[in-house]
Amino acid sequence: MTTDDVPAAITRAHHEEWARVVATLTKRFGDLDLAEESAAEAFATAVERWASAGVPPNPGAWLTTTATRKAIDRIRREHRRDDKQREARMIHDDQPDVAGPIDDDRLRLIFTCCHPALAMESRVALTLRMVGGLTVPEIARAFLVRETAMGQRITRAKTKIKAARIPYRVPSAEDLPARVGGVLAVLFLVFNEGYLATGPDPVRHDLTAEAIRLTRLIRTLLPDDGEVAGLLALMLLTEARRTARVSAAGDLVPLDEQDRGAWDAALVAEGHGLVRERLATGVAPGRYQLLAAINAVHTSARDMRDTDWSQVVALYDQLVRVDPSPVVALNRAIAVAELDGPEVALSAVDRLEVGLANYHAFHATRADLLRRLGRAREAGAAYDRAIELAGNTAEIAHLTRRRDRLG
């Protein structure tokens, strides 16, 4: 391997080994701060050493060994061995190391970072830092907060883990389904922020890619969990359309106007395969599996006119029973408009106003339905409200273009 290949090897090792290194050190020393800092030092050392000595045959083992030595050196320097041992007992909840249904250090780390005792924003930040290996500045930029504020958020989360004695272990078999749901919610939030980012960048591929990578990891660790497979399929089928979602001028391109030839065929095929695999089990699907199935119907159609809208509505009928939220009802109404017409759909949408009055997609949907019904003045007012509430430049450009066409 040439020296030119070393940066690629470092990047690959960071993607593949960061979570494993941090998880191994957390288990051994019981300290998230120590694990994170030592892992970062090990990667910094790798940048220097590998450039001259070459990439080792087993990068993960080299990094883990180096990070472990860094951690031991730090403990010795700080003369805090007793404190570290007490913190280790804290994070293990003063209990023997009991293996969960799946015994993997990375899974322990993920469940620790996504513990329900933490606020959702803290779970997201901590997961991206400790499991994903993103830097604090990268996470801060992604969620449009100051770097100092994001650093404090992550520090508070780690402090709470110690203070609340949150155990570093996989939940028991009976608790696992509920806790997995919390992990998936974190990953879905990360993906959605990248898919339709707030701020000037309409799509954040770094975030969608990271969410997919972490969900693949969960899928590897929990291969029989239907909702994990469903979320991965949903992400893949959504990501497949990424390059077709924004025009050269920076406008959001809705599904009915997208160039389907520009979709990533490999991601579509993989997503469809996961959906078929779950359907074959005969097990009642959960929220993510239903959302993935809806996306599978959309991505199966060669043209918008070929979409099986009756199947889409039937899937939304199932989804409403699993997740009776007004956002799901709004999306169902959009499908109903294609099946039963805009007037029927508008009636359903108007009933959702109380819960969605400050949601830009509600007003955008109303505007489109009113436009199709020829009620231009009302449609214009609805577009104005949607533009006012939208937080994404590409979406604002799309809504403005739609509104201006009314005149």
UniProtKB/TrEMBL annotation:
This is RNA polymerase sigma factor. It comes from the Bacteria. PANTHER family: BLL6612 PROTEIN (PTHR47756:SF2), BLL6612 PROTEIN-RELATED (PTHR47756). Keywords: Sigma factor, Transcription, Transcription regulation. Residues 179-277 form the DUF6596 domain. Belongs to the sigma-70 factor family. ECF subfamily. Residues 20-80 form the RNA polymerase sigma-70 region domain. Residues 110-161 form the RNA polymerase sigma factor 70 region 4 type domain. The keyword Transcription regulation applies. Signal peptide: none annotated. InterPro entries: DUF6596, RNA_pol_sigma70_r2, RNA_pol_sigma70_r4_t2, RNA_pol_sigma_r2, RNA_pol_sigma_r3/r4-like, TPR-like_helical_dom_sf, WH-like_DNA-bd_sf. Pfam families: DUF6596, Sigma70_r2, Sigma70_r4_2. It comes from Actinophytocola gossypii.
